[in-house]
Amino acid sequence: MFTATIKSTLxxxxxxxxxxxxxxxxxxxxxxxxxKLTIKEIQNCNAIFISHTxxxxxxxxxxxxxxxxxxxxxxxxxxxxxIATQIQHKLKAYxxxxxxxxxxxxxxxxMISDNKIVTYELSPPLWEIKEVSxxxxxxLFADKKFEVQGVLLDHKTPSLAYxxxxxxxxxxxxxxxxxKGGKWVNELKEAFNKNLSNQIIQIENIQYEAKDLFYxxxxxxxxxxxxxxxxxxxxxNHKKITTHFLNCDTVFIESYYKNKDQNFAELNFxxxxxxSGQIMRTSLIKEAIPVHxxxxxSAEEINELQQEFYESFMNSQKL
Length: 319
Known about the structure:
Blueprint: E1 2-6, E2 16-20, E3 26-29, H1 39-43, E4 45-49, H2 55-58, H3 61-68, E5 74-80, H4 83-92, E6 105-113, E7 116-122, E8 130-135, E9 139-142, E10 146-154, E11 158-166, E12 169-172, H5 183-193, E13 200-203, E14 206-209, E15 217-220, E16 224-228, H6 235-244, E17 250-254, H7 262-267, H8 273-282, E18 287-291, H9 299-317
Helix pairs in contact: 8-9
């Protein structure tokens, strides 16, 4: 399960913190100017996911750097093509003559097409860009319990949307039998995961076929979380969203404009309330949350925008 918390207020640039359940680290989506983001949360950040580098999504990266210096580990940053150079420019804008080489390093993953990722490393004091690998994949980050996939949307510049996918887990329910636990439980789980139904499982000198013990296992389906930022309300973008985020449990989606300002949305390659709600409904999203609103709106107008979004999302679901 993922806990996602908006760390920016309505009048600030967007920033969302993601915390996987029973996990040591947290993960930052977007580097907007977020007053609710604490120093401890920044220092405990294991990876940063940036959709694109318009100022409202990247302005706070300098603060991230400031508070991560000295954590003595590598932090992953994911984004669209050329973000490694932009990060390097941020870093080289400062003087690093007193920094220890082990103070911090960045691994930068650029998604340059829908199925190609280039990985770079940057380390102090010179912060030179070193290419590490090229892979044909859309998986930008992976942990033993979850992975993060990316899909590129059009915002008159590539804008990277992210999907956090928790892996399914197999739970053992010993209360369903009189057997005692032991190393055989892990053997049974492995047999289940590999579909080895005829594998022999030995318990206290008695041999069982794995399939005869599968009733003791329960499959817990992993949760999914989507972060969809700036994108034009176009057919191509909507097709990618419905394909990539179909049946997602929770999605945060940009709803930059009110319905009356649809013309501004189309002109500026942003989505608007009704369309964001509608595409969430089409994608069969269980919980959809509108975020990232134009600064032209007052708090009251943003409340109206949110109502427009949910009206589109909820009413469409009843069709």
